[in-house]
């Protein structure tokens, strides 16, 4: 044997001899381990990671623009100090204000001078004819808007339409040649972990490309009634607003709108309006110059676990109808207070936040099927949608008095009394409001935790009307005998606005 072979052999003097069968087994195990290790496939992430974003960026960047918006306002008049004639300071003050461009002298009001307020943002072309999309807050009330293209071309823009609730604006520019445009993609199919790329105008630097992943979907940041943001860690900063968020096919799946940052700069938490929310609004703005949202005419609240148990829903889901507009389309369609909407026009309503967004994106005048659960039974009603008017007003809440008259019954941490003229005056209750008046709430009760207050009125218990405290206690006793864990109360405030509250009866 040569030297190399001897080096691989175990020493016969250092190690005891093993039977051949055991040595073969050990050798086979070693070979198997090596082969198995070599056969393990590489992680999926390593195979799907893009080598570069350069080709994608080069393809779509010509359609991404900078937005310059300026607003000219009249400066407030400034009045020079009233000074005695001949005072040594008269000439000094006059010279000071003249230097600052305020003009005037003595005690006369200085003439105003227009001031200009400028903002910078981003946008993108969606139609070669010159249709540009951006955020509403980028242009605000600007009276001079320019769209600046990557090649330096600067075109004046006019507003086609804008919507503050989804924070979108559509602009129109005139070009002597077709413009590079990008198209929207399917934002509903993206998943947390998918790669995305943002292009915009951060801090006025011009076209900048950043990349990251989708961090989450369906984010509610309390910025409006239709919040449904895509969260991404692709760097988004001041000036990126209105710019596109691309998938790896070069399709716009979001419009970069907001960031969460304690510093004012990117900390990896950015939000984009999903294409599924933006496209219907953009289409309406292009067609009508305004939004025309569907309207159902109901007031809703969320369904928690206790409410779901009380309504025999199984799991907490849907939107619970707590009020119906007498002039809205829901009433003639047969929807009732206490119904839980679980599907709307074939779309699942997972919680109460889903419904306004789905309804608003539905065409005005469309007849839609609404699946509801009523007293444990699912049924379908057909509703012809009205139009949501942005000028709708909501009645303000009036705080009831804290005085507590003598109670006649107690249950669930509530002191209750039948409706009387004296109680109606004391708590300023609406004349046609009927039910059982709550005169005191135990601060250590579940009712207090659910924010029930003295002066409110119990209208129903488990969707059955009550007119006396005895009605309430009897229904609660019935629920206990059925083994139920909670009671569903329909509670009205002084103005008659109602909400459902599920209270534990254990």
UniProtKB/TrEMBL annotation:
UniProt-listed SMART domains: PDZ
EC number, UniProt record: 3.4.21.107
Domain PDZ: 285-376, 394-494
SUPFAM superfamilies assigned to the protein according to its UniProt record, in alphabetical order: PDZ domain-like, Trypsin-like serine proteases
A GO cellular-component term linked to this record: periplasmic space
Annotated catalysed reactions: Acts on substrates that are at least partially unfolded. The cleavage site P1 residue is normally between a pair of hydrophobic residues, such as Val-|-Val
Domain of life: Bacteria
Binding site for substrate: 137, 167, 239-241
Biased composition (Polar residues): 394-407
Top class in the EC scheme: hydrolase
Principal location listed in the UniProt entry: periplasm
GO terms, biological process: proteolysis
InterPro entries, A to Z: PDZ, PDZ_sf, Pept_S1C_Do, Peptidase_S1_PA, Peptidase_S1C
TM region(s), chain numbering: 24-46
Family, per entry: Belongs to the peptidase S1C family.
NCBIfam families for the chain: degP_htrA_DO
Stated name of the protein: Probable periplasmic serine endoprotease DegP-like
């Amino acid at each position: 044997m040569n030297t190399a072979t001897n080096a691989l052999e175990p020493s016969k003097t250092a190690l005891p001899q093993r039977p051949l069968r055991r040595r073969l087994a050990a050798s086979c195990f070693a070979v198997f381990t090596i082969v198995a290790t070599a056969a393990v496939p590489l992680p999926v992430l390593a195979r799907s990671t893009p080598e570069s974003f350069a080709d994608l960026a080069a393809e779509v960047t010509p359609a991404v623009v900078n937005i310059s918006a300026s607003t000219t306002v009249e400066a407030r008049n400034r009045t020079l100090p009233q000074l005695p004639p001949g005072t040594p300071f008269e000439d000094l003050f006059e010279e000071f204000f003249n230097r600052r461009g305020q003009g005037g002298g003595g005690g006369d009001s200085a003439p105003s001078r227009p001031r200009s307020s400028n903002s910078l943002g981003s946008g993108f072309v969606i139609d070669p004819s010159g249709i540009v999309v951006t955020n509403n807050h980028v242009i605000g009330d600007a009276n001079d808007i320019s769209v600046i293209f990557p090649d330096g071309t600067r075109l004046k823009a006019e507003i086609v339409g804008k919507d503050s609730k989804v924070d979108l604006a559509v602009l129109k520019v005139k070009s002597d040649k077709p413009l590079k445009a990008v198209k929207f993609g399917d934002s509903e199919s993206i998943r947390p972990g998918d790669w995305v790329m943002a292009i915009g105008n951060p801090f006025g630097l011009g076209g900048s490309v950043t990349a990251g992943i989708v961090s989450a979907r369906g984010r509610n940041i309390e910025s409006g009634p239709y919040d449904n943001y895509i969260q991404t860690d692709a760097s988004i900063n001041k000036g990126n607003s209105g710019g596109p968020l691309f998938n790896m096919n070069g399709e716009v799946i979001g419009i970069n709108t907001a960031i969460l940052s304690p510093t004012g700069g990117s900390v990896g938490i950015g939000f984009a309006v999903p294409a599924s929310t933006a496209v219907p609004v953009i289409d309406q703005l292009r067609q009508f110059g305004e939004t025309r949202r569907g309207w159902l005419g109901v007031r809703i609240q969320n369904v928690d676990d206790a409410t779901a148990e009380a309504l025999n829903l199984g799991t907490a889901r849907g939107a619970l109808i707590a009020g119906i507009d007498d002039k809205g389309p829901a009433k003639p369609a047969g929807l009732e207070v206490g119904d839980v909407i679980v599907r709307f026009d074939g779309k699942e309503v997972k919680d109460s936040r889903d419904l306004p967004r789905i309804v608003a994106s539905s065409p005005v005048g469309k007849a839609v099927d609404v699946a509801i659960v009523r007293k444990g039974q699912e049924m379908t009603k057909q509703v012809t949608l009205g139009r949501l008017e942005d000028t709708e007003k909501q009645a303000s809440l009036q705080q009831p008095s804290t005085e507590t008259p003598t109670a006649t019954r107690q249950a669930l941490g509530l002191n209750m009394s039948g409706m009387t003229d004296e109680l109606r005056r004391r708590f300023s209750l609406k004349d046609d409001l009927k039910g059982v008046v709550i005169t005191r709430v135990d601060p250590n009760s579940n009712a207090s935790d659910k924010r029930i207050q003295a002066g409110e009125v119990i209208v129903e218990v488990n969707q059955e009307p009550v007119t006396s405290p005895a009605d309430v206690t009897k229904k609660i006793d019935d629920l206990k005998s059925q083994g139920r864990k909670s009671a569903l109360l329909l509670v009205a405030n002084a103005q008659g606005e109602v909400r459902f509250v599920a209270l534990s009866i254990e």
